[in-house]
Amino acid sequence: MKSIFTLIFTVTLSIFTFSQTINLTSFATGLSSIVEITHAGDNRLFIVEQAGIIKILNPNGAINATPFLDISSLVEFGGERGLLGLAFAPDYATSGRFYINYTDNSSVTEPNTVIARYTVSSNPNIANSSGTILLTYKQPFPNHNAGKLAFGKDNFLYIGSGDGGSAGDPGDRAQDVTSHFGKLLRIDVSGASYTIPTTNPYANSANGASDPRPEIFAIGLRNPWKFSFDKDNGDLWIADVGQKGYEEINKVTNSGTPGDNYGWRCYEGINHPFDITGNCPSGGFNNTVSPVAEYAHTGVGCTGSITGGYLYRGTLYPDFSGKYFFADYCKRTIGILTNTGTSWSLASQTPNITNNWTTFGEDVNGELYIASNSTIYKISDANLSTNGFSKFDFKLYYTSFKGIITLDLNARFNKVKSLSIQNILGQTIITKNTINKQVVEISTENYNSGLYFVEIQLKDNSRAVKKFIIN
To answer: Is residue 418 part of a domain?
Structure first.
């Protein structure tokens, strides 16, 4: 007969002994060229494949047979070109709007980067097939397309743009405000097309060929792969791929100051001059946003290519709380930045599974995922610690002859918004959204042996988690 143990007690099992902190578990396979993982405010994950297809990944790890959107007929796919970005509008639940960033197939040598708006159909799992193009700019080289899209706390759409490609930014585009390249762009997409936020640094530009581009919010980026906003406070994190010496991570409060200069091509990393012969800031490096962390290239060949991630705001792994996760495509490592109080301390490790990491993902609860070309992995703490993460506590009991878990939610049960159980893969086994009694019983008769998490979410969105093992 199956038995169950709550991890309120000390359980000694060899499978819990890891030398590293980060543990990866396969969550979904059979995908292709994954470049983005995001959510639409619910428990589904949307997976962007570079060839031009968006698929829906469900909480149980199943992928919908019909794609959410297929624009492969519009996309130039290969190298660093393709469908690269996806962001759902803050009001997606009512507007049904979402935005994509792709390289079109209008030209083999100089295709366009396209920012377009699409909408969901009457079927929440399928989008309407036609969209509205909002913004385009022609790519002079096949690399450094960047492509990330994300909404900030200000509800404006931010667009990451690479420096145009080749090597060393030969056109000095990242510092050229008449160019869209090497920039963080910001637009207001709440209307029929898009408008320029009045606080953009060049919002009043005449927008002629020799005038600053009004969409610019910040300049001086090489190839920002990727950027993200802190789910709690809106702080902006940008991982910028380096040229020959250093990979860098930038962090600014909120979204930063309009007109921020991140330094490229004048500098890379923390005050390492690269090419200061062009349009560099008059005050030198001191007039740029200094990265909070860097790491140097070592060895030969592919020695560094950063993949930006997220600051952990989930609830399952409290030891991860407030730490920024990133990876390196070349080194196949995963890194963590930890706030020491006065600075950020960087540490990288080789997880239990190694691969060329292409993107991170964050689900609606703040839990993190990472992807290689075809597989998505759930990130977990090898120490499996969940103690002391919430002021809310509940009791868990097991009736062995019935195979039933009993949850005593205490007198505050009416504060509970939802109850869910997940397995070690992060797949949701059961969710209850209506809790109207203090004691809840759940049958585990059909559960496989293994580790499970019981998560209670309160109406104030705080969470409490307990774990149990069935063997």
So the answer is: yes
